[in-house]
Amino acid sequence: MRLYHHKTDGGAEYLTDKCIDCPDESKEGVLEGATIIVRIDGDITRDAEISLGGVYDAARDLLAIANNVVSLAGFGANDYSISADERAAFVRLRDQARAAIAKAESNT
C-alpha cells in the first residue's frame, strides 16, 4: 500500500492512503476520505498515532454480517441453501473479524 504525505497549514504532518494530483504532477495526501491516517509530526522515534477509522468500522460491519450468516446456517443448510463448507468459511470469517476487532481495540 502506498501512503502519501500531507502537511497542514498548522504544521502537522500525516501519511494517508488517499491523495490528490498536484499541478506539478506530484501527489499529495489528503485527510478527507482516507481510511488510513498516520500522524508523523513530533518525535516519531518515541511514539506515533495511526487512525484506521474506516477499516475498523468495516470490520465491525463484516462481523455483524458473518454473525447473521452463521446464525442462519445453524438452522439447517437445506433451509438456506448453505453447504457445510460454506458455513465453515463464514465461521472462519467471523472469527477473523472478531480477532481483527479485538486487536484494533487493544491498540487504542
Question: What would you note in describing this structure?
Answer:
The protein has helices spanning 53-73, 77-80, 84-106, and strands at residues 4-7, 13-16, 19-21, 27-29, 37-39, 49-51. With 108 residues, it is α+β, with helices and mostly antiparallel strands. The protein has 2 domains: 4-51, no CATH class; 53-106. Strand 3 and strand 4 form a beta hairpin. The two termini are 22 Å apart. The model has no long low-confidence stretch (mean pLDDT 76).
Number of helices: 3
Helix content: 40-55%
Mean pLDDT: 76
- What is the total domain count? 2
Shape: elongated
Q: Count all strands and give the number.
A: 6
Widest sheet: strand ordering:
1-2-5-6
Main sheet makeup: 4 strands, antiparallel
Structural class: alpha+beta
The run of helices and strands is EEEEEEHHH
Give Rg in angstroms.
20 Å
Strand content: 15-25%
Low-confidence runs: none
Write the SSE topology.
Layout: E1 4-7, E2 13-16, E3 19-21, E4 27-29, E5 37-39, E6 49-51, H1 53-73, H2 77-80, H3 84-106
